[in-house]
Structures are given as C-alpha cells and as structure tokens.
Amino acid sequence: MFNLNELNHQPELDEEESSVLLSIGDLMSGLLMIFALLFVTVLVQLKDKEEPRRVVVGTVVEQMKGNNINVKVNPETGDVSIQDKILFDENSAELKPAGKIFLKRFIPVYSRVIFSKKDFEKEIARVVIEGHTSSKGDDDTNLELSLMRSLSVAKFIFSNELNFPTKSQLRTKVMAAGRGEMEAKQKVDDPSDRKVIFRFQFRGENFSEWYKKNQPLPQQKP
Questions:
Q1: Dihedral pair phi/psi, residue 90, rounded to 5°
Q2: 50-213 adopts what CATH topology?
Q3: Can you give the pTM of this predicted structure?
Q4: Residue ranges of the OmpA-like domain (predicted)?
C-alpha cells in the first residue's frame, strides 16, 4: 500500500542533504581561499627576500662593466670569476706583479659595491674567495694549490700594499676556500677551469648548507 507519509517526508531529507552539501562546499571554498592567501603571502615574501639580492648582483655587473674590469660575472648569483693566468704563473700560488695590479683595480670597486648601501651590507653575509684548478695533475695537489691561491689573494687584499676605504669592513666578511678540480670539466684539461671566484653567501643561508649546495661531487676519472 502506498504510504503518503513517506512521500511527504522525502523532501525534508533532500533539504537536509542539500544543506550539508552546501556547508561542505562553503567549507571547501573557505579552505581554498585560505590556501590561496597563504600561497600569495609566501610568493610576496620570497620576492621581497630575493629583490635585494638581484639589485646587489645587478650593481656588481654594472660596476665591473663601467670600470672596464675584465672579469666574468654570473648574472644570477653575482659570482665573479678571474682567470688564474691574470693572477698566477702555472703551478704557483705567488701573485704575479700583474696580478697585484689587477687586484688593486678590482677590489676597491668590488668592495665599494658591497658597502655602498646598508641593505647590501646586511644582505651579504660572507664573501668566499675560492681557488679552482683544471683536471690536470693530482687531485690532492690541485686542492692544495687552489687553497694556497685563494689565501694568497686574501692575504694581499688585507696587506699594506692595497688600501681602500672599506678595507676593515671587508675583512669581517671574507674567507678563503680551495675547490681544486671539483668543478672542472670531466676528463678535460681546460684552462678556463683554472680561476679564482669571489662568491657571495647571502643573509639567511646557513653556511654549511650553502657550502654543501655549492659543493659539486668529485668528477670520476677513467
């Protein structure tokens, strides 16, 4: 027998279900809105964090070109590469006279950029001077040579032979490191691998993590 009570009661269940679905829909919309706001906030924070770094790097590029200083600057990181033939004789860690002349032109301009603005000085935590070699020769010898060269450059910068207004400030940021042939092209003795790099470590980057990130795996030799 057909029950009229069941027929009358059915729409009420549909309305309850619709209310539940609407509530769930509203909740999902609210959550999506929250996630969207968080995403936008993170993007803005990342942009604000990276903006000073881009300005620092751009200023380094501009000043090197403007002062006709023959170096290669990475437009993304600000790494400044100086070919070792400018600074050293082959297999030597002693700065050549021409190398000293070059550093006397380069360092004052480079340091002036770092300390030209408080934001720049604050953003740059360290300046790491790295020595690099090609794959020619023994690994251990290359690593030692690269470290000795970076130390020679650092020692000269803070010697009595070189004076510039921001010398004492730069001293607090500089450290020397040897990378040997770790970044050399595999199995190839390429002179372009032999260089000294001035590399920024920016504020907020843990040094051990930063160094590990910039530490490539040793190349496998045949």
A1: -60, 135
A2: 60s Ribosomal Protein L30; Chain: A; (3.30.1330)
A3: 0.71
A4: 75-208
